[in-house]
């Protein structure tokens, strides 16, 4: 789904069948109208010849005989297309096909003194210091949150996953020395970068903070309502069983009933096959048959703030490191394709998310289930980076004041599912 648009191509053979029907009825009408076969029959055979040439020139797709392309790819079709036809229990016994993640800034001691219940990872570009600082001073500051009796014992930690930009190395090192909340992953040139980056969140959590029960993913232009986040986290931690033991991949299939991803769920989203009516920045959403063979995606979560429990985290990592055919739409891949293949439950939260770019977050956060709001902060043109940083903080602080004013709405909300 792209801004509510449903753009996709139908199966090519449906088109061929429609064309054949047109040829048939056109020929019949010709014979009825003119009654002279010498005029109609040569045209009929010429069109049939063109039709056959079109069929012969069509490139066959090895998946067309095995995959129902008119529905979302299910576990079976995902297994055939992405996993060399291996079932999860078979895949988990394979040797690693992906190299381990490497980090320029690993921040390996981040959880050594205090293990959080939930680790919140925010995706950020090296250049976006203003956004990171605005988050640290507003929704990423958990002091006021922990002053609420209901959340007094909830342990949360915030980290920013950033890219490597040679122009900003000194700035990033200084920022890390001040705040100690950065993780910088080395991204391979050949890989689907957003997918690799988002999987690095899970890898870092399991490597350096494995006792964290939950991992939350968001972006630095998203304002999270932490009262609502804390409310649902408290419910999940209190009412579900999450493994804290070290489990090898060959045994991870035993976690079936407890592996869950929570968030705002997209259902029956169409696959975009062509560029009609797409903005230039949306071109990355165009997907070929070879990349993904079905017309719809499996149910997947919005990247604005999905929550992955440790059981799901383990299964996703075990599968990711053992297969080579990835997919560049990271939210679809991680919370949709991989989750469907691994039989991970995707639990829809009855929250609202605002995707508007007109900065209407202040009004949006008057609703009792307003979970996350996108801001157009990165698109604000200013004469200097300093003015831009000031603007970002002012906007986030305005949102934060509104959320804080309405905190009772969010603290008492209990219709999660």
UniProtKB/TrEMBL annotation:
Pfam families: Galactosyl_T (PF01762)
Gene Ontology CC annotations of this record: Golgi membrane
Sample GO molecular function, one term: hexosyltransferase activity
BP GO annotations: protein O-linked glycosylation
Transmembrane residue ranges: 39-56
Residues spanning the signal sequence: none
Transcription regulation listed as a keyword: no
EC number(s) from the headed UniProt entry: 2.4.1.-
Entry membrane topology: Single-pass type II membrane protein
Key word Glycosyltransferase present: yes
UniProt KW keywords: Glycosyltransferase, Golgi apparatus, Membrane, Signal-anchor, Transferase, Transmembrane, Transmembrane helix
Subcellular location: Golgi apparatus membrane
The family this protein is said to belong to: Belongs to the glycosyltransferase 31 family.
Protein name in the entry: Hexosyltransferase
Organism per entry: Adineta steineri
Lineage: Eukaryota, Metazoa, Spiralia, Gnathifera, Rotifera
